[in-house]
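Q: Structure tokens for this one, please.
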Amino acid sequence: MYQVWSNFLNPGQIAMLGIVVTFLLTFLALKHPFSFLPSDHGREFAVNGGLSRGKLRGVGLVIVICFLIGSVLFLPLGAEYVIYAILLVCIMLSGYLDDASETPWSDYKKGAIDLVISIVTVITFVNYNSTTIYFGNMSLTIPKVVYIILGIILIWISINVTNCSDGVDGLCASLSCVVIFAFSMIFHDVLGSFTVANYLFVAALLAYLYFNTSPSSMLMGDAGSRALGFYIAILAMQSRHPFLYLLMAGVMIVDGGIGLVKVFLLRFLKIAILKNTRTPLHDHVRLKYKWSDSQVVIRFVILQILLAVIAYLIAA
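A: Here is the predicted structure, written as tokens:
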């Protein structure tokens, strides 16, 4: 389809048209949502968790589908991108099926799914790309086996910290918009068609935010947050600066990662840390410092923008 558009429009015009169409498609699909989407049951231990009860959940399925439709219509698709798109659907469906389940899936079940998808993703990456990574102007070529191991860890962490950050209306989507857009701004020469793909994903997320700003009427659920974490990890690898993920998604890492570390240490090593800190961190600041949902979103977004600026200075 991209070749058809290229007969009439230049690449910039195709990208702008794709942004508008993807936004409108997502907006209309969310305005008139699928009848089979589940309702949220509330979160017993989360701050204000009961307020989400009864809201439409799992609309990440809609977001991802609309993003992929936009990709098919407005991107020059290669084999590598198609494989990632299929894997994106798989990780999204794993989250959606959990959203729709009467009893939540176990952490081990989701962790096993994450591991399999991470392995396939990294193997795909090393088959299509070099394993040379950059630290500013310095480069280092990593053996494929080592890169695969590190890549699996990156993807697993990204999926799970992004998932954990989805607990306040508008937070996960807003942070993801900043992260994805920042990757396009900083690494547009390296990312190629992923640059435009990022704009399409942000357009879909903006349409979702129209309905997800506090007080929200719908939630992306694990279907959305897990897919976003997976996609952001791919961008980190495609940028050739994978360690800058620590800054590019720093707020998500701190917000969701602290809880993951606490659970890991307590479950496997019987070590309890940060006993007076509620996790995810967005629950802690709402409970202890009485931040409103809007304050959490705006302040976390500001911090993430600053971290993205620091990442730009390092990459440049």
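A few notes: The chain has one domain: 2-242. The chain has a mean pLDDT of 92.
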